[in-house]
Structure formats: C-alpha cells, structure tokens
Fold this sequence. Notes:
Blueprint: E1 11-17, H1 25-35, E2 40-46, H2 49-61, E3 67-70, H3 75-79, E4 84-85, H4 87-92, E5 97-101, E6 104-108, H5 111-121, E7 130-134, H6 138-149, E8 154-158, H7 162-175, E9 180-182, E10 192-195, E11 219-222, H8 231-238, E12 242-244, H9 246-261, E13 269-270, E14 273-274
Parallel strand pairs: 1-2, 1-3, 4-6, 7-8, 7-10, 8-9, 10-11, 11-12
Antiparallel strand pairs: 3-5, 5-6, 13-14
Helix pairs in contact: 1-9, 5-6, 5-9
Amino acid sequence: MENGRPTGATAIFPIVGDPVAQVKSPTAISAIFSRRGVDAVCIPMQVAADGLSPLLASLYAVRNAGGVLVTVPHKRASLVCCAFTTERARFAAAVNVLRRTPDGWSGDNSDGAGFLDGIERRGFAVADKSALLVGCGGAGAAIALEILVRGAARLAIHDTDIARRDEIVSKLSARFPGRVAAGSADPAGFDLVANATPMGMNAGDPVPVDASALLPEQFVACVVTKPEIPPLIAVARRLGCRTATGSDMFEAQAEKLADFLLAAPSSCSTGQGKLAENLVS
C-alpha cells in the first residue's frame, strides 16, 4: 500500500456473502493489516449461491488472493470447497474463513469463539449457566459447540429446521451427554438467550424469541451486525437485560480472523486454549 492505496503488490482478501453490504470486515480487517504493516486489503464480493463454488475456484487461481472471509448464506457451502478444515469447522459443517495453502483452501470456523469472547467482554461467562440458542446453521452450530466447551451446564437449541436442529443436538449429545436438548422460542429460565439467526437484519423481521418472557437478570446476545442494535437487543435493553451485539462478536474475533488469514500461530485459539488445526483432506 502507498499512502493507504493499493499497489500492484497488494494482496487481496475478499469477503463473500449475499447480501454483503452489512459486513464490517472490509474496514476492520483492512485496518488490522495496515497496523501490522501488511500490504493487503479486504474487499466485499456479493455472490449468489450458484456462483460461490466457481468464485472460490477462480480466487484460488488469483495468486495474490491470500484468503477469503465468508458470511451468510455461504458458510456451509464453502466447507466443501476446502481441501483442509479444522476440527471445529468440521463439527459445525461450515467455515467462515479460508486461507490459501499450496494444496488448496484451508478452512476454519471462528464464529463460536468470537461470539463467546464478545459475551465475556460484556461481563458474562457461560460456565455452569443455562443457555437457549436460536438457530443452528453455520454460525449457530459453532456457537453451540463453544457454549458447551466453555462449560455451560445446559443448552437448549431451537431452530425452525427441525431436522437440522435434531442433527446438531444428536452430535452434541454424543460429546456432552445430558447437557443439550431441543428447545423452543420460550426464553424463560435461561441465563443466556442467544440468537444465531439472521432475524433482525431486515426491516419487519420478528424477534426470534418470545420477548414477553425475558427478564432483566438474563443476558441476551445476537449475531446480527446491521442494524447496530438489532430488534432483539433493543427489546432486551428496554427490559434491563445485559446484552452483546453482532458487532461485539465481530470485534472479538477480528484479530483471530487476521491471524488465520496470515497464518499467525494464534489462529485456532479458543476459550479453552489453543486448538490444533488438525488439517485433513
């Protein structure tokens, strides 16, 4: 970069999604590269589902494309485009970041660690607590795993896709017996109420839980980054709940995303310490 502008030597790290206007990565990740003295920039790319696989193949052919960030709705589909994946990405069956290797894309999923780190920065620790998680897609599955890894006593998962919900409950139950079950939109009795769906991103979206059952002593968190204060968070704050937003989640994982893209040693760290990348074909 020269005077903050790309040059012929600048590496690119796209973020792909549909939509993509809501993402914070182009500004935040590019700023991290600049602070680290890395000649690189993060750029947005909006691509429909049928264009994702060709795009990732084309980007791998672009030798100065060092990696790719992935947002909704492409996290699950991007997994199959990876030659290698981390253990937590395989568990979630989704990736949110890809890094170039000589033999193909290497994928990770930092959503769970980022979400829980963001909550902890707001003063809530999930250990020995109960949690309701709404949504178990690419981000939600990673968040569900991280909630239990960090010691939650009980996790209930609610998703309108019953088959997807039951699949993730079964996988988690095998690893954390007696601590996870199917849930509903009723948040009563949970210490943490977490939304891992896009509900709230679009005007007119309903609140993903029964807000009338929320109490001030509950902590409410949401993955939505735009609007800055999603409807669920706005309701929770009016009721006196402590909260964490999608922006808190992103800010908590931005440095780790940059680490992974640049192959820094801490790229696979979680709340339980460093997680070996454990790459497999």
